[in-house]
Amino acid sequence: MKITNNRLVSERASEIVIQESTTNKGGEITPNFIIIHFTAGRGAESSVAWFKDPMAKASAHLVIGRDGKIYQLVDFNLKAWHAGVSRWTDTSGLNGNSIGIELDNPGRLTKVGDKYLSWFKKEYPKENVIEATHKHEKTPTYWYEYTEAQIESCFEVCKLLLQKYNIQDILGHDDIAPYRKNDPGPIFPMESFRSKLLGREDDTTDIYQVTTDNVNIRRGPNTEFDSYGQLNKGMKVEFIKSENGWSFVYVLEQPSNGLEPTYGWVKGTLLSKI
Ligand SMILES: [Zn+2]
């Protein structure tokens, strides 16, 4: 495959790329991130049809089927509507600078008796169901596995996008909208994608725990900045960077006060490494 004029072009018979079009899109963007999603849908074709429907008010640059087939709906230099309300470090509204890739997958399954059902009540074969804990949750639930063909297509596309655009990171929808979204879920090999594609073999995440109750999480690295939430003892955060004794962290649990400070600054002395 290659990218020509912001579109994927297949170069071999085994690579199937289908160009589609949708009016669910915006103006020009400069993509800096790749956001991985699952469709939570019935199949790649029905998801493509949905993203072409003006009623959906949603789209993605690509949909990848379970057979590895790739559907492109939006040129990579135009805005697709996949991220919604979202934030990553100091950027909010990721539609404005990211490429959205949707993998055909029904999403979280529910076990009813000995059956595994999607939210739209379709049954999925037990041998393809994986029990795994989402990184924002505490107990395992059921997920339908991605296929090898699908993961391989996704990997090839990411590799090309990294060559063509100034991509800084590959993220999940659940990274940029953590309390609202759970896709692509625990069964997507995000760590392996990031280490193979971004060369971050040593990029192990540093998880810290808050050591006392009512710890303010602030908009900047000192007490003059507003506090927009409080964290309690034992809550987990992911360390991103530090400045003058303050740590910029990613909050891994929803604060009990109902606020949603996904990111913020916490005094370094109130955190201990797990
Ligand atoms: Zn999503």
TrEMBL record:
- A Gene Ontology MF term for this entry? N-acetylmuramoyl-L-alanine amidase activity
Question: What InterPro entries does the record tag this protein with?
Answer: Amidase/PGRP_sf, Amidase_domain, NAMLAA_amidase_2, SH3-like_bac-type
Listed SMART domains: Ami_2 (SM00644), SH3b (SM00287)
Among CDD domains, the record links this protein to: PGRP
Q: Which reaction does it catalyse?
A: Hydrolyzes the link between N-acetylmuramoyl residues and L-amino acid residues in certain cell-wall glycopeptides
Question: What is the E.C. number?
Answer: 3.5.1.28
Tell me the Gene3D superfamilies matching this sequence.
Peptidoglycan recognition protein-like (3.40.80.10), SH3 Domains (2.30.30.40)
Lineage: superkingdom? Bacteria
Enumerate the UniProt keywords alphabetically.
Answer: Cell wall biogenesis/degradation, Hydrolase
Report the enzyme's class at the first EC level: hydrolase
Which processes are annotated in GO (biological process)?
Answer: cell wall organization; peptidoglycan catabolic process; peptidoglycan turnover
Q: Does the keyword Hydrolase apply?
A: yes
Domain SH3b: residue ranges: 205-274
Q: What is this protein called?
A: N-acetylmuramoyl-L-alanine amidase
Lineage at the top is: Bacteria, Pseudomonadati, Bacteroidota, Cytophagia, Cytophagales
